[in-house]
Known about the structure:
533 residues, Rossmann fold, nine-stranded mixed β-sheet, 19 helices, 38% helix, binds glutamine
Amino acid sequence: MKYIVVTGGVISGLGKGITTSSIGRLLISAGLKVVPIKIDPYINCDAGTMNPFQHGEVFVLDDGGEVDLDLGNYERFMDVSLTKDDNITTGKVYLSVIERERKGEYLGDTVQIIPHITGEIKHMIRSVGIKANADVVLIEVGGTVGDIESMPFLEALRELKMEVGDENILFIHTTLIPVVGSVGEQKTKPTQRSVKELRSTGIQPAMIVARGTMELDMKAKHKLKSFCEVAENAIFNAPDMDSIYDVPIHFEKQNMLSEIKEKLKLNTSEINSQKWDEWKAFVNRLKHASNQISVAVIGKYTDLKDAYLSYNETFHHCSAETDTKINVEFISAEDIEKCDNLDTMLSKFNGILIPGGFGNRGTEGKIKAIEYARVNNRPFLGVCLGFQMAVIEYSRNVLGLKDANSTEFSTITEHPVIDLLPEQVGVTDKGATMRLGSHAIKIKEGSFAYNIYNKNKIYERHRHRYEVNPEYIEKLEKHGLIFSATDIEDKRMEICEIRDKKFFIATQFHPELKSRPMAPAPVYLAFVKSMIQ
Ligand code: GLN
């Protein structure tokens, strides 16, 4: 088994996730079996308890793991389905070591960062590789080299290098080359410092990926070579690109795969597989889409684009599939609340999407936007909280249940049309306790949803505590809000639709979490097609 480790220097938010994902795409295109791992040096055991404003969206895997959004990038670029073990955090490592210590499993030893914490990190990494039967374990170390938090991880990786030997592990340092001054000089000093910092942990990078606004010039490359001891052909440009999906192609043009293969003595074919052709064709379609539409995404975390990363990416996938550029505009639900004339704000959009979310802020704005979409027959898609809001809107404005609400927002409402899932009653811990991950869904034949999926059993990913209150289902359906899909036991409502509308569908699950470049989420694709018409 070979290991590739991607570290980051100078600043955070460099696009290490996209660099790692792109390397992954190159490797799988050469026929290698790759398993990615994201290391997050924070103390949280997983990303589930974090506000999306902190690190962007919480991504959810089939097994219910609530993980860093980079795992979403890995899944999309590498077309794999990952597990919660593929995201290692400081909290997870310590929890495991402390649990073992409490059981007395260290047999009287003093439990220390070295060797016990570093040993546990190595054990977790190796186990992921073995379980996946991988040719290459591709590890991204979150944070920036020099952070106190990442020290034990770098030490563990240094130890791993000693154990597996230099020819089996490759360190790639992703770094920033700022451009300053009126002449636009590319500055290598921050990178020199950060490589020095990395070397002080006993790790010499074999490759550098230089991020910046433009391609590296020769002078900068020479400097990096002499100060960082990295050969020129192992220094790669990663300038800002219009599409993240273009990054693997840009790397390949610089022969990155051959360099990796040579350094790791990988015995594989050249990159000319079907997987690579498909990727290039996808990027080509994405870049040359000829139509144009706009969609409004009305949410609460609109100041941070990463908070809705998977939604955005799904629209890219649909874009390539439909030859249509999709302008996604994020609108704060609170701005909708304050707006007197929704037509001026929303009529320019071809459709409206209400994404998932938590907490009361902005919910009345979301309900107002759904009413606008329904009354004016505009394509509408609701996801998770957006599904629940659609049920509340219908209850209030069609059934006349004026104070209908979710008990997440009002415990005194007379009409709790959205209520806590029965198994959530009495649950007080917040970490990993929602209804999470992939669950089977039954779709009713003859429904709009059935037309979209073309089958009656699907699997989609979930993340919620509340659901449609069963007491209101009959009444809602009688008035035209049809529940066209349920869980396998017919207990939980999974999709609702209004039949006589152009497109009015909402899902309790998150279809965007399974969308892939060459296989867009079916519900989104249908939504996009209805917006194009
Ligand atoms: N807050 C809602 C719930 O917990 C919706 C969750 C979501 O949108 N992911 O059920």
